[in-house]
Design a protein that fits this description.
Blueprint: H1 2-17, H2 19-75, H3 86-109, H4 126-131
Length: 134
């Protein structure tokens, strides 16, 4: 095997010295450099994809834990808490919608706030209060 490797090396050296094949070897060398750059870019992209995959796995595990916890809470509601009825649930959603509408209206009305005048009444004593007829 060592002899065959030496023979191949000598043949390549002889080929490299021929002017007609020299330009082809230069092109091959240039293409190898380009392939090496592409390979490096591909490796960095694969590393980024692996990091993203790991982050997504962590996110999925977190979501599954949250879902399991929510399911457990839903199935194990303490007996002293009242059960939610359908009318209660629809009422809550309606209240939420009304509250958001009211909040939006209040935000819209804030710039046109009117000042109200409060009438002042003179202070009276307890004797004056008792003398007022019922």
């Amino acid at each position: 095997t060592k002899i065959s490797t030496i023979k191949k090396t000598l043949q390549l050296r002889n080929i490299g010295q021929e002017p007609s094949l020299k330009s082809m070897l230069c092109k091959i060398g240039h293409e190898m450099v380009l392939l090496h750059d592409l390979l490096n870019k591909m490796e960095t992209e694969v590393q980024q994809q692996e990091k993203l995959k790991n982050l997504l796995k962590e996110l999925q595990k977190s979501a599954e834990r949250d879902q399991n916890e929510a399911q457990h809470l839903r199935e194990n509601v303490p007996p002293h808490l009242p059960k939610a009825t359908q009318s209660c649930i629809t009422g809550l959603t309606a209240k939420c919608e009304e509250q958001t509408k009211v909040a939006e209206l209040e935000r819209a009305k804030k710039p046109t706030k009117e000042s109200r005048l409060i009438k002042e009444a003179p202070l009276i004593t307890a004797e004056e209060f008792e003398s007022v007829p019922a």
